# Entry
Amino acid sequence: MNPHAIEIRGLVKKYPQFILGPLDLTVPRGAIYGLIGPNGAGKTTALDMIFGLGRNDAGTIRLLGLDHRRDEVALKRRAAYVSPDLNFQVWGKVGKAIRFVRGFYPGWDDAYCAELMRAFHLSDRDKIATLSFGAKTKLSLLLALARRPEVLILDEPTTGLDAISKQEVFDELLKAVEDGERTVLISSHGLSDLERFADHIGMIKNGQLRLEGRTDEIVDRYRLVEFFTGNGTTWHPPGPAGLTILKGNENRWHALLDQHSGAQEWLEQHGAQQIALTRLTLEDLFVALATENDEAVI
Amino acid sequence: MKRILLDHFRRWGWVLALCGGLEFVLGWSIVASPTMAMEFWALLLTMWTGATLLSFDLKRGVLRALAPLPLTGRQIGRGWWLATVAIPAITLGALLFLGAGIFYHFHPDQAFRADRLVMVSLFNLGWLGISFTMVFNATRGFGGNGWEFFWNAAVSWLTILAFFGSMLLCQNAATSPVKAGILLGVGALLTVVGWVRAERLELGRAGLYLGRSEPPNRRRPANALTPLAAKISPHVPGGYGGGPFLIRTAFVPGFLQLTIMVALMAVLWRWQTQRLASPQEPAGMVAVGSLMCGWFVLFYQFMPHLGQLRLLRTLPLSTTRLAVVLIGLAVLPILAVGTLVAGVAGLTLGATVAHTIVNRFTFILAPTALGVFVTVWQGAGKQAYAGVILTLFGFWLGGMGLQTLLHVPEIPFRLTGLIAAISLLLAFLLTHRTLRHGSRAFRIQPNSGGNLPWGAGR
# Structure
């Protein structure tokens, strides 16, 4: 059995003002993979390509060993996509939307669907037009989960949700993946949620994957470093690879430090004083990496 | 208000300039060919200089952008009325007379038909008023008390009837006092209604274009702090779903609405001619009726479904099947209505009329199927609207040209069938290719206009 749920190799999609890729991305089976990146980085485009929402200019996408073009229908039977842009309004009522979607999936789980309706406070008689933005997202999630997909791809599933709704959504997602057999690829700006929820993280910036790995390892690898350059020291940024200067004020510096790069030793050798390392959250790391210039960090 | 007017004309200047140029040509043509009925073309031009443009703006959320600005609802409403009714009516009238006057200047031997020009100008005002009221009425929603609901529904129905009715009545209306009286009377009434409603635009009630198509569900608080799960007994709907459900739910209302529209047109036509027994007479009406069916299906039935194309693409439907379903959504109601109308006409009016109907409804399948491709390709935006209209009227004019070329009153059915078959095949191949290669249609935002045709995309 293929150990990877999603394998993206050399994916390129060209728009007049934006190029995604070449992108290589691997999501292991049973993983919860968080895809992060600034707005317009190419996250939604990458996810769209998996479902054929636009044609890639180069590269291959395989999901559970299935080619996204050749095995289009089989792939879509085993995967589900949740995106805020999915529009169910034409169906009028929640019940009709459910009836429509369930018709495509022989393995649709009615009991689980009823459970999700209860958890998400949705009734089959609810008018879709009167649902709040968050409730529409929940409907989208319900339609995706009730078919028991092997791979769940979520694009900004918590956008517009309040804290309680977000908790409900994550609870249901965790329940759905607790058997360890389902894979989730989730693109989100809710970094604190992802830090708790995702076991793998990939960061896209300007259409390129800039960082990828296990969440705990990534967060552990980087530190925020504060140091001083003493009198007579002639050091000026840029420093070595693995050291990204965030701000400097005369002889006081703040930087992002990759602990695997040997940059700390380099700093000590070059006269940096009072070196203080601080643990970062995923959000701090994201901000630091998203605002740095486009040099590769991996 | 001045800024609203300037903004409208700055953005839509190119459309207005194009229509203005054509109105000039129309004025020229009325004097140059006094025997030809031109009122239908005048109606088409007013459609694209009036509230249709406003409907595009509303669809793209202009009211949401205007609401926080220091403007009263009255100023906005009045500005829109002036921009889409009064100023276009005056300008079109002036250009009509200018075209006619210049032609007359060079051909003083021709009669200057001032009576027809005045009538067309008055019709223009009426049509602009009707379309404004029709579009503007949607900003009021259908909420409120029973009386408001009734009044809004009545105005909506009246505008729709007036709009489609005037398409039938307008031919030769300038020379028929009865037709002219009806058109001008209804037009004047609805123009005044539009002005009064524009004066009373309440931003608080214009929920339709402020991001919500209906009032929020009051049954449940927005933030359900107390779990409501116990109160809701979830019911998962049974029965079949999937593609057949989609076709059925789109087909049934489409078929019923088309049938009502065609029946209404037949009644109007009968009332207008009073000579239904003549087998040759219905040909023109059948041609207009079939064209209207194509128009109605594409704009009112198919385009609202385009909003869920992104969803449809994520479902386990092959590209081939999805392309067939999309074309089927538009083509099947026309086929069914055509068959029904031909059957009824065959029994009541004879086989010749039935044959004409079959022929015309087969012909209209061609631009309808290609219209599906255009909307999938362009994503139901301005370009899609323009493309569909060009396709429909291109085929209409092409059909007339073919008749002239072949010296026949009607295109032979074999040729019609061939044109329809080739167009269907072409539409399928192009739609299939667009679904696989394009990405524009998949990026349509959930619209704020619900299922209304002017809310079908961005």
About this structure: Chain A touches chain B through 51 residues (CB under 8 Å). Chain A has two domains: 4-206, 218-291. The first strand of chain A starts at residue 4 and ends at 15. The two ends of chain A are 29 Å apart (CA to CA).
